[in-house]
Model the fold of this input.
Amino acid sequence: GQQLNQSPQSMFIQEGEDVSMNCTSSSIFNTWLWYKQDPGEGPVLLIALYKAGELTSNGRLTAQFGITRKDSFLNISASIPSDVGIYFCAGPEAGANNLFFGTGTRLTVIP
Amino acid sequence: EAQVTQNPRYLITVTGKKLTVTCSQNMNHEYMSWYRQDPGLGLRQIYYSMNVEVTDKGDVPEGYKVSRKEKRNFPLILESPSPNQTSLYFCASSSRVDRASYNSPLHFGNGTRLTVT
Done:
């Protein structure tokens, strides 16, 4: 199946710092999604991207659809303690109906 | 309240003892799916269903069965659980899964942590 690799695997940052993470795939995607999983809960959709080069914001979060269509990036500005969780990229394999998720980036924010 | 409900939240069982994890959604969603989450591997899709009586294998279907007799329910069945099926399981649903766009987000349940000894 499709392999989505996320980097870094985990991050420890000070409150107030900016965060960057990325996701790469072995094939072209037409849609990129970013989900966040709070501890003890299921993932929740943060941002959806539909076009190569697209840059979309949701509050302090900004995500970009890579030009090559094989990668995507998520930035969080001025991190706060409630940003703690696991961030997943996801996307549908071209021509398929199922959604693949990345390996996740675990974020810890130190107050 | 719109939600996806999984039961149980925690389950400890022994190898070979059949079990069912239930999943129910109250949003009249057509699409439902099961994932397992393992450290370092992210979420991997087990099975999904586009509508009633329509199910398809995901990435890791071996050792699992599903059924979709009604729109709201999508149970996950482990006929003969093994220790390598110890994992955190998530059920999810969406109003549609369209090849052109994914602007209908997946709604996830709160997970079922399964331990098979």
